[in-house]
Design goal:
alpha+beta, 2 domains, two-stranded antiparallel ribbon, 6 helices, 217 residues
C-alpha cells in the first residue's frame, strides 16, 4: 500500500462504502489522522486482523475504487475520502436523540475540505462532502438543526465531541425537555461544567460555540 500523495478532489461526490472498505482506505493513508478517524468510527482494528484490509481492498478493486496499474492506490471518490481523512486536523462526533432514537455522525475536516460520515443500513457508511467554504462547526450545527426539524416530539437531545490534532477534547450537550426548556452542559471531556439553563437556539450554534468553534449566526 502507498500513501495518498495527490490532493483530494472534494468537488467530486463521495458515495457509500462498507466498513471494511473504509478500514482498507484508511489503512492505505498510513497516518495518525486516518487512525483516529477509524477509531472514532469504531471500525475493526486492521492491525489485529489484516483480513479486514483484504476484504475491503477486494471489493474496492472490484468496484473500480482502487487502481492497480503498477501500484495500489485509491481513485476518484475513494481518493477524495482518503485525502481528507488521512490529513484531518479536526473531528466532530455528533449524537442526536429524538423520538426514542439515537443517531450518530462524524464530521472530518482537513485543509482540503470536510466530509460527513454517517452510518447507513446493512453496514454501509454514507460519505458526503460538505460544501466548499462551509466551516466544520457550521456543517455540524446544520446537521443537528435538520434532525430537530424532523422530530415529532418536543423533547430532544444533541451533543458535540470536538477533537483536534492537538489540545484537549471538548464536549457540549443540549437537552430540550417536554416543556421546551433548554439546558446546556459543556467543558473538557474529563472536566464537564454543571448544566445550565439557556435560551432556545434553533440554529444550535450554541453547541459549536461551547466547544470553542466560531459560528456566524
Amino acid at each position: 500500500m502507498t500513501n495518498q500523495t495527490s490532493p483530494p478532489d472534494v468537488r467530486k461526490t463521495i458515495s457509500g462504502f462498507t466498513a471494511f472498505e473504509i478500514a482498507a482506505l484508511l489503512s492505505s493513508a498510513e497516518s495518525d489522522a486516518a487512525l483516529r478517524t477509524g477509531q472514532m468510527m469504531h471500525l475493526p482494528d486492521v492491525e489485529a486482523d489484516s483480513r479486514v484490509v483484504g476484504i475491503g481492498m477486494s471489493t474496492l478493486i472490484a468496484r473500480g475504487k482502487m487502481r492497480t496499474d503498477g501500484r495500489v492506490r485509491p481513485v476518484d471518490d475513494a481518493a477524495a475520502l482518503v485525502g481528507i481523512c488521512g490529513r484531518a486536523t479536526t473531528w466532530i462526533e455528533v449524537t442526536t436523540i429524538a423520538d426514542e432514537k439515537t443517531s450518530v455522525a462524524l464530521f472530518v475536516s482537513a485543509a482540503g475540505g470536510t466530509v460527513l460520515l454517517e452510518p447507513a443500513p446493512y453496514g454501509i457508511w454514507a460519505a458526503l462532502p460538505v460544501k466548499a467554504g462551509v466551516a466544520i462547526g457550521r456543517a455540524a450545527t446544520r446537521y443537528v438543526s435538520s434532525t430537530r426539524e424532523r422530530t415529532s416530539t418536543p423533547s430532544y437531545g444533541a451533543s458535540f465531541k470536538l477533537t483536534r490534532s492537538s489540545g484537549p477534547v471538548r464536549t457540549a450537550a443540549v437537552k430540550i425537555d417536554g416543556e421546551g426548556a433548554w439546558r446546556l452542559q459543556a467543558g473538557e471531556l474529563d472536566k464537564p461544567q454543571p448544566p445550565r439553563t439557556i435560551g432556545a437556539d434553533p440554529t444550535f450554534a450554541v453547541l459549536a460555540e461551547a466547544v470553542g468553534l466560531g459560528v456566524d449566526r
